[in-house]
Design a protein that fits this description.
The chain is of the alpha+beta class. 38% of the residues lie in helices and 19% in strands. It has four helices and four strands; from the N terminus they run αβαβααββ.
Length: 109
């Protein structure tokens, strides 16, 4: 078997100790990241509710950008207003996504 076998076989004096998995239950809240698609102006209210409920939301915008650039710009403006009102953080990507986080999570830009 050679050198590798000797390295991994261990000695008879070794003791195996299992460490239990520790779960932090102090917060009591689960963080959820959602991927949503924005198709029109009405979707902005739904996305705002998701973020107010504590979700981090990735928003697919590419289809709306291609279909109706004016509607897309209106949606972004409304998302900015909602974000400012509730203290959300908002950022866009070059890949056609927007990221919206609740006030407890900040996006490093």
């Amino acid at each position: 078997m050679g050198l590798l076998h000797d390295l991994f076989k261990g000695s008879a004096d070794e003791e195996v100790v299992e460490v239990p998995e520790v779960q932090d239950e102090s917060s009591g809240q689960q963080l959820t990241v959602r991927i949503e698609t924005i198709r029109d102006f009405v979707d902005v209210d739904r996305i705002g509710r998701l973020v107010r409920d504590g979700n981090i939301v990735f928003i697919k915008t590419r289809d709306l950008q291609r279909k109706d650039l004016g509607e897309f710009q209106n949606c972004v403006q409304k998302l900015k207003r909602v974000s400012n009102q509730f203290g959300f953080d908002l950022a866009g990507t070059e890949d056609g996504y927007l990221l919206v986080t609740p006030s407890f999570a900040k996006i490093l830009k």
